[in-house]
Design brief:
The chain contains six helices and two strands. The protein has about 150 residues and is an alpha+beta fold. It has three domains: about 35 residues; about 50 residues; about 50 residues, no CATH class. The C terminus is likely disordered.
Length: about 150
């Protein structure tokens, strides 16, 4: 981590001064710059290609659990936390679907409207005299709800 800080601030001051400030050796910094990526970094780069492919196949809706499951189906062994870390480091995140809104009222129609016979007078003199109803939206598909009328006895 110290070497990355030195690399990003090289134009501010000399490498020797930055190394002295962070208590690291100058030779260690230059060895870090010329070092090949570790085996783990190479595996992460390889795995990132599969993650991007699974992400695009899921139309950008998949998060780390689903992408991890897709990688497991392909026979790639890795943990979900590793997938989540790589996705986070490379800015890959799932798009969220918009919340479903229940639309129970459609006032823009040319059909006849039932008359309001109760006129908000819900007091009944005898049982089974006045019935009221309510419409409840029950989702059966992404866009089109089925509407069911429920009747309650007052």
């Amino acid at each position: 981590m110290s070497y990355q800080i030195i690399e990003s601030h090289r134009e501010v001051g000399s490498v020797e001064r930055l190394c002295r400030t962070l208590s690291v050796s100058v030779s260690g910094y230059y060895a870090w710059r010329t070092r090949e990526p570790s085996q783990r970094q190479q595996q992460d780069t390889h795995l990132l290609g599969y993650i991007r492919t699974a992400y695009q196949a899921g139309r950008g809706l998949y998060g780390s659990p689903r992408i991890h499951a897709a990688l497991q189906q392909q026979g790639l062994g890795c943990s979900r936390k590793r997938v989540a870390r790589l996705m986070r480091q490379h800015g890959i995140h799932s798009r969220r679907r918009p919340k479903r809104r229940t639309h129970t009222t459609d006032s823009r129609h040319n059909r006849p409207v039932a008359p309001n016979l109760l006129k908000r007078d819900f007091n009944a003199e005898a049982p089974n005299e006045k019935w009221v109803g309510d419409i409840v939206g029950i989702w059966t598909d992404w866009q089109y709800p089925n509407l069911i009328e429920c009747k309650f006895v007052s």
